[in-house]
Amino acid sequence: MAASMCDVFSFCVGVAGQARSAVEVRFVSSAKGKGLFATQLIRKGETIFVERPLVAAQFLWNALYRYRACDHCLRALEKAEENAQRLTGKPGQVLPHPELCTVRKDLHQNCPHCQVMYCSAECQLAAAEQYHRVLCPGPSQDDPLHPLNKLQEAWRSIHYPPETASIMLMARMVATVKQAKDKDRWIRLFSQFCNKTANEEEEIVHKLLGDKFKGQLEFLRKLFTEALYEEALSQWFTPDGFRSLFALVGTNGQGIGTRLEEIVLELLHDLLGLGWKTERGK
Ligand SMILES: [Zn+2]
Ligand SMILES: [Zn+2]
């Protein structure tokens, strides 16, 4: 989930090269929020906008299947070849062009308490300072009775792949406020996202959970409360507030693909001789 309206530029980490003037952020409406508008022609493959998410979390099924990504910025921690070996179950699987992989294992760090991995010391520090001190399970990382593990297990049992959101986005939002010295600033930031009417929220929750599991929202709310209750955010833990939080993540969260998948796709296209290439490397 990325920063909203008035804070959008403070969270923006820079726009690449000439594209700096190629787009602008405009407020569209309170229902639609902000939008990105082109101010000039943009070439295919050009980076037009970069922003830092307020919170990010790996899809839980991906993590369970040991897709290795930085726990803070989601950068891949495994090379395309390792990814292909894991997915195909063939340890000897070789992919051409290893030089396209830029995974820097020498920079990787882990949390000394729960061993979760980061791409760099910067990400480890950023996570610790924003939310990880509250969420770190320490040595209980594999304990099925740890409240956060119970919550994640419940989410996985309700939300099958392909995943479109993660309960951990909400957990990180709460943990961010719990850890923050200036709680109001973060509450203000989160409250600036597009809000929906109760009916629209119901529809979004319905879509996220699917017909079969619609009634499970209350079950998730109980586990969420047990794991994370925070007085300053008490409104998020009520049945209505939790549904709104759910809808907020469903509306404003963004699923992202990885660079790694893009590289694998590109290599497959090369291997199969489909004559298709991205702009990169030309
Ligand atoms: Zn990272
Ligand atoms: Zn930890």
What's the N-to-C terminus distance?
32 Å
- Provide mean pLDDT, rounded: 80
Radius of gyration (CA) equals 20 Å
Shape: globular
- Count of helical stretches: 11
The major sheet is characterized as:
2 strands, antiparallel
Structural class: mainly alpha
What is the helix fraction of residues, given as a range?
40-55%
Succession of helices and strands: HEEHHEEHHHHHHHH
According to DSSP, the number of beta strands is: 4
Strand content: 5-15%
Number of domains: 2
Q: List the ligand species.
A: zinc ion
Q: Ranges with pLDDT <50 over ≥5 residues?
A: 1-19, 274-282
In the sheet with the most strands, the strands line up as 1-2
Q: Which labels suit this protein?
A:
single chain, 282 residues, mainly alpha, 2 domains, two-stranded antiparallel ribbon, binds zinc ion, transferase, methyltransferase
Write up this protein.
Mean pLDDT is 80; it is low at 1-19 and 274-282. The protein has 2 domains: 5-52, no CATH class; 60-252, no CATH class. The protein has 11 helices and 4 strands. It is globular. Helices cover 42% and strands 6% of the residues. The longest helix is centred in the middle third of the chain and has 15 residues, at 121-135. By secondary structure, it is mainly alpha-helical. The strands form 2 sheets. The chain has a two-stranded antiparallel sheet with strand order 1-2. Helix 3 (80-88) crosses helix 11 (259-271) and helix 8 crosses helix 10 (239-252). The protein has helices spanning 8-11, 60-64, 80-88, 121-135, 147-158, 167-179, 183-191, 198-209, 217-228, 239-252, 259-271; strands at residues 23-29, 33-38, 109-110, 117-118. Bound molecules: zinc ion (2 copies). One zinc ion binds at residues 111, 113-114, 116, 132, 136.
